[in-house]
Design a protein that fits this description.
Blueprint lengths: L24 H21 L18 E5 L3 E7 L8 E6 L2 E16 L2 E16 L10 E5 L2 E7 L2 H4 L11
Antiparallel strand pairs: 1-2, 2-7, 3-4, 4-5, 6-7
Length: 169
């Protein structure tokens, strides 16, 4: 290696820097520093990519799947560890509102120690609904931690396309 290969402004003249051996400790250090900067700067491109998906579920704590067909809208919501009595589902102002509240209270007094735990959690998810749904005919079921809400569409919305006759003047 020549000293002129280490001159930083040499590449500005259109000449490529000399290739470095993989065993070169300076090259290894530079690669490590470059990799560290790339990883650090990558956090700013996708700021929450390192967090689990449940952390990013709009803050509601309820993961949902929504399917819309010509006849209905079907929403499946994950509510693990929830009793059906603690779930509230309603349609209001063109939106489906799913909420759940969970309270726990546990006390153990044995072998000379007392354990008391209390917890409270409330989650809510508001989902906008398309026009032309029949909220009065909506049905909800809850099985093994999954709430399924089915909302049929009104007859006009189900037909999809409507032919408009053209009249001559």
């Amino acid at each position: 290696m020549r000293v002129t290969d280490l001159i930083p402004w040499k590449s500005a003249r259109g000449l490529e820097p000399a290739a470095r051996s993989e065993r070169d400790p300076i090259a290894a250090l530079q690669n490590d520093v470059n990799r560290a900067f790339d990883e650090f700067l990558g956090l700013f491109e996708m700021p929450f990519s390192g967090f689990p998906a449940s952390f990013l579920d709009n803050g509601s704590g309820i993961q949902v799947d929504i399917a819309e067909t010509d006849k209905e809208v079907k929403v499946s919501a994950e509510l693990p560890g929830t009793d059906d009595a603690d779930i509230d589902v309603k349609v209001s102002d063109g939106a489906l509102i799913i909420s759940s509240e969970k309270k726990t209270d546990r006390e153990i007094d044995e072998n000379g120690y007392i354990l008391r735990e209390r917890g409270f959690g409330r989650v809510e998810r508001v989902l906008p609904l398309p026009d032309g749904i029949d909220a009065d005919a909506a049905k909800a079921s809850f099985k093994t931690g999954v709430l399924t809400v089915t909302i049929p569409k009104v007859a006009e919305a189900q037909s999809g396309a409507k032919r408009i006759p053209v009249q001559s003047n």
